[in-house]
Design goal:
The protein is an alpha/beta fold. It is built from 25 helices and 27 strands. It has an eight-stranded parallel barrel with strand order 3-4-5-8-9-10-11-12, surrounded by seven helices. The structure holds flavin mononucleotide and iron/sulfur cluster.
Amino acid sequence: MSPGSHPHLLSPIRVGTLELRNRIVLPAMDQNNCDDGLITDETVAHYEERAQGGAGLLILETSAVAYPHGATSRHQPSLSHDGVIDGLARLADAVHAHGSRMVVQVNHHGRISGVDTAEGRPSLVPSLPVPEVDVSEIMVDTTMDELMGMATLTGGKMPTYEEASAETLDEVVERFADASERVQAAGLDGVEVHAGHGYLLATFLSPAWNRRTDRYGGSTDGRARLLVEVVTAIRNRCGPDFTILVRLDGRDYAMANGITPELAARYAAMAVGAGADAIHVTAYSTTAGGPGFTDGPLPWLECQYEDLARSVKAAVDVPVIAVGRIGPDDGERILVGGGADLIAMGRQLLADPDLPLRLAAGRPDLVRPCINCFVCVAQNFWSARPVCAVNARLGHYDDPPAGPADFRRHIVVVGGGPGGMEAARVAAERGHRVTLLEKSRRLGGTALFSALTTPMNGELVRYLTASLAELDVDIRTGTTATPEMVAGLHPNAVVVATGAVRSRPDVPGAQLPHVLSGDDLRGLLTGEGDLGGRRPRTAVRLVLLCGRLLGLTADMSRVRSLSRRWMPVGRRIVVVGGGLVGVELAEFLAERRRAVTVLEEGDDLATEMAHPRRWRTLHEARRRGVVFRTGAMITAITASHVEFRLGNETHTVAADTVVLAGGIQPDASLGELIRETTGLDVDVIGDAATTGYIQGAIRSGNQVANAL
Ligand SMILES: Cc1cc2nc3c(=O)[nH]c(=O)nc-3n(C[C@H](O)[C@H](O)[C@H](O)COP(=O)(O)O)c2cc1C
Ligand code: SF4
């Protein structure tokens, strides 16, 4: 692989006796494609795509060494009998054919063994009683459907626990060694012992969970004993050439008396002493509630665990793998600075399996970015296959890839938001001639505007724009499509992706000048969009004009940073509508020192967000003082207040500015008009067809273009 734009990431490395072509690692991520523990075609397709995309090392998702005992799901790989070897061998062949290496994450899921709970077995823990884990905050912010989904994993049963005896632990150690021997027999390159994320080995390492007084507890050495015995047993069974990684939490974010960076460094050194060839530094938050899950194991912040990897690296003399929202540029920086030896990119390689190849080609601009939306991992809470908001293929391996089109057609796409751009991209990639018409001066639609509150959405728009340029799509911005104009382009097919419409609530005062729709706000901040004949105050207009003339409002990241100093809104803001848009806007405004109240008619907030992201966003918004009122029916807006009903009671809240963030409706009218008046073949996709936000828009754009 050529050094491309990221020479350190793309340089080879040796881990144990394993030669890797580069330092990019796919960390273990459950895909739930297995059938009662057996590898399926979908499992093979998922990993083969990532091998083909150029990653140096792939780590197979968490696999149960004593399956179904100590397993989280019947859809995860089993390693507990020889019948699994053929499937693993198929995986090994597929991955090796593309030059990647692969190890299997070997695990006993301990207290999180959903299959044990479902089947009436107690889960293994080091000590009883188990510490209390507070889930009150997530219960509030989780919908009934999601709670039901989570409950199906265990058949609605609550876990019971068993303190592991020394004899049981001897058996567990044997299961790890047996499982690793099967991995070796299948021709795979090694194992990663999972000693993090609250599973069995992690609970033994944690002083909060392990209060034993026998040889498996009582001291740092005692708590590390089970891990050391597991690594030693695998090394003895599989020999010196078999690669053994150990995955450790560098920190438990939630538990007083949990894993600290200092403890993690000591455990890492002990694992190396027992025979580990590399240490992979992750993190965890035992209290999954509120922000917990988005601290660990899935970080919210970029490079959140960088320092944890650095501190382990100082304690060991084997390669260290860093993980945790590390993109290519940060990965390169960390390697150059000696903070780690390899970089694992989890969600980023779900979003774009071809990342290594794109870096090798010197085209990091064509890497499809992960937008940190947590849609993928949300599926794991009910043991379903992860899907991805930006990569329509993830989780749909049973749809064969469409490949090049049989003959070249001319496709006109109307609407340059994510759905339209994805349709244009895929159609052009398949060989069609594509014309893209967009009413506004810039591509991106509402996703561009949402970059104000959610910057990664802007990255997605940037990537799609770069891809369209690469594919020579004829992009016509500032062009309002009409049936006549579309017909005049003589297309073979038309895709309409003009998005949703937003209506104002039918209450007195909804038309007052201080009542802004999302579109108004966008118009005010960016100088684009339709202000619906509403005129901002003169001073506001002047500032906006200057901003536009200086080009400041053309770039959302600059608008975002300028908005910290000035925004054309008052101090007290009421946001009407507590969906995704309203909640993100509320947090954004509160961060800019506005007093924000969100009024939501329904019982739940931000239901369109994947629940882990919702937990985090609502937590952050509340922390910044946002007040949420659910079940609130707006009855009137005055110059100084919003009046609303909660049950039979009438309430008011003071407001200098009111932002309308609800009333979103699909709008297929342009598509229907084009179809009726021109007789052309028209597909309506994205929010114009059904509101599905970025995830729905990308998937529908991709599907339609694959069928053209
Ligand atoms: C869908 C999904 C499934 C995951 N499953 C596992 C797993 O099986 N084992 C594990 O150790 N970590 C698992 N993780 C955590 C990742 O390995 C990784 O540590 C985490 O996503 C942070 O890296 P990232 O920010 O690059 O995604 C999973 C993450 C995702 C998104
Ligand atoms: S679903 Fe969202 S978080 Fe997950 S990989 Fe895709 S873009 Fe990233």
